[in-house]
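RESIDUES AND SHAPES:
===
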Amino acid sequence: MERLNTYIYRIIMNPIKPPNAKKIPKEIKQHNQTRVDNYAWLRDKNWKKFIEGDLDFHDPSVKEYLESEQAYTKQIMDHTQSSQKQIYDEILSRIVEDDISYPYQKGNYYYIQETKKGLNYPILQRKFASIDAETETYFDINKESENYDTFILGTTSVNKDGTYFAYTVNTTGSMSYSLKLKDLAKNEHTQLNITDLTDSFQWVDNENIFYIERDESGRGKTVCSINIHKGLESRQVLFTKPTSHDDMFLDMTKTPDGKYIFLHLNNGSDTVIHYKPLDSDAPFQLFVEDKDDIQYSITHNNGSFYILTNLNHKNNFMIMTCPVENISKSNWKIFLDEEKDLYLETMALYNKYLIACYKNTATSMQEIFIINILTHEKRSLKFSTNNFCFHLIGNDDPNSYVIRFSLETPIQPSTLYDLNLESLKKITLKKSNVPNYDTNKYQTEVLNATSSDGQKIPITIIYKKGTLLNSKNPLLLYGYGSYGLGITPTFNQQIFSLINRGFIYAIAHIRGGDEKGYNWYRNGKKELKKNTFEDYLTVCHFLIDQKYTNAGLITGYGGSAGGLLMGAVANMEPSIFKSIIAAVPFVDVVNTISDASLPLTPPEWEEWGNPILNKEDFEYILSYSPYDNIKPQSYPNILALTGISDEQVTYWEPAKWVAKLRDLKTDNNLLLLDIKMNSGHTGASKRYQWIKDKAFEYAFILKAYQ
C-alpha cells in the first residue's frame, strides 16, 4: 500500500508524459486517391537486418522513438510489479515444472521429453528397445540455446535408424530457419548448417534430406536435397517455384508410410500440388492444379491416393481416391461423400482404417469417425462431453491398429490415450497434472448470438461456479476470425488467474474461422471481411444483453489477424470496451497488402483482396483498416505488443498505430506499446519469460479496472 501511495504521489507531482512521435507527412497515391501517412518513417530501411538479429538502425530516431515507448510502458506499469509477481506465481503454481512426457515409439527407440524446474526448454531423450531401458539424452535444448535470447525449433526428426538428429532452428523470432545436424553416435554436431530456409524438411532415407530455401522476399522458393555425409557439395535443386506462382506459399509433407513427398503451393484460393515417389529418381511431377478456391490434401495407403477436397462445390469436403498408376481427375472416385451438416476438416489413414475429423456446422463441435476402408463401416468415437478438443497424434507405424490422441476441454486438462481402431477401446496413458486447480469449481458452456443477417455465432464461455449474471462481471473476450483457423476449446491454465478474480472468459467463434465449416471461413474474408468485426461486436452485445457483463467491462484480446480485429472494433465501438490487448496486431492493412516485397503479402491477396490491382478491393480494405480509420474520439485502454524481428506483422505496424492513436484520441486512458528487441511474432520462447509476459498482460488488464 505504501508503494502504491508513493507511486500516486510521484505521478501527481511529476506526471509521466507519453512519447510524442514526430510527423513526417508522406503522400501515398493509389487508385486516384491520395492519403497522408505521418508515421511511415518508423519503417527503418535496415529492418531486414533485424530479422537476422542485427539491430543496426539506419535512422537513429526510429530506435529512439521505440525505446521511448518501451521506457514509458515500463514507467506506467512499474507500480504493478507486485501484481505481476503474484500472477506469475499463480500461473507457475499450476505447472508441473519437473515433468516427463509419455514415451513415443519410433523405430527401435522410445522418445520422451523431460522438463526440469528452473530450465526454460525441454530435454529430448530416448530409450533403446524398451521403456525400461537406460535414458539417453540426445538433445538438450537448454544447452544448445545458452547463447540466444530466442531459440525456436521448427521441424525436428531423427532418421530411420536413429543415428542422426536433424532440426531447423530460429534464433531471432523471424521466419528464417537454419538446418542443423547432430551425430548421435558421437554426440556432437556435424558441420552442416544451411541458413535462410523455411522451417520444413523431410528425411528421404537414412542419409538424404529434402529442404526448402527462401527467396529474397522471405518466401519458400526452391526445394533441394542434400546428403548428410557429403555436405553442401551434394546439394541438388529438385524443384523451383515458377515465377507465375510467386504469390503462393510452398510447403512440403511426407506420407505416413514414407513412400511419397508432396509439395503444396497455396495462396488461400488456388492450389498446385506436385509429388515424387521416394523409391525412384524421378523428378517431381504435377498431381493437381486448380483455381477458384478448390483445396486438396493428399495421402497414400496401400497403392491408392486419398484426396480430401471440396471439388465440385462440395464445400463440406469429401474424400476421393485414385490408384497411384492413374492420377488423372477422370479416374478419381468418391470414397467418402460430403455430409450435409458436417465439415470434414482432416483425415488420417492407418492400416485398413481412416480417421475422419469433422466439425458440426450447426454447433461448431468436433465429431470423430473411424471408417473401415474395405467395408466402409463408419463408427463414431464417443466421449463424455460434446465440447472437446481432439488432437490426433497418430503412430509412426502406418500399419498399426493403434493410434494415439489427446483430448481436452476448456476446463479439463489434456489426457493422452491409445485407441485400438478395431475395438475402439481407449487406454489412458497420461493425464496432465495441473496443481492447485479443481475442475469442479468451474463451468463451461456454448452459447449462440444471432448476427444481423441471421447467423448463429457460437461462443465458448468459462466462469467460476456461483458467478452471478448481474451485468457486473468483467469479461475477457478472445477473437481471431481469419485464414479459416478455427479456435478450438482447449484448456488454458493461465486464464484461471483472471477467472479466479471474478472474470468471465469467452471465445467468439466468428466468421473468418472455420468453426462452422468452410463457408464460415469464406463469409469472413475479402469483400465479406467486415462480417468478422460485426460478429465480434454482436457477441459483445449478446453477452451484455444476457447480463454476463456490461458495456465498459469487456476486455478484447486478439493477436496477429486477431489484432486487426481489435483495431477495427476499437474504431467502431470503443465505448463497449474497458481495454484492448492487441498482440502483434495487423493494423496497417492497406499499406502492408499494397507492398508486394513483404513475405506474406502476395500469398494473402486471396485472403484480403489485392489493393494494388483492384480499386474495389482497395476501397473496401481502406474502409476498415484500423490505422487508416483512427479518428478523434475516446478509445479504451490499449496495450499493443510486438517484436522487432517479426516478419509476419512487422514492428512498424503497431508502432505507427500507437503513434497515430496517441495523436488523435481524446481520452486519458492508457495507451502502451510493449516492444521486445529479442523476439518476433510468437513472442518469448523461454517458458519462464513467457509466463512473465502473460503476467504483464494480465496486470495491465487488472490495472484498467482500478
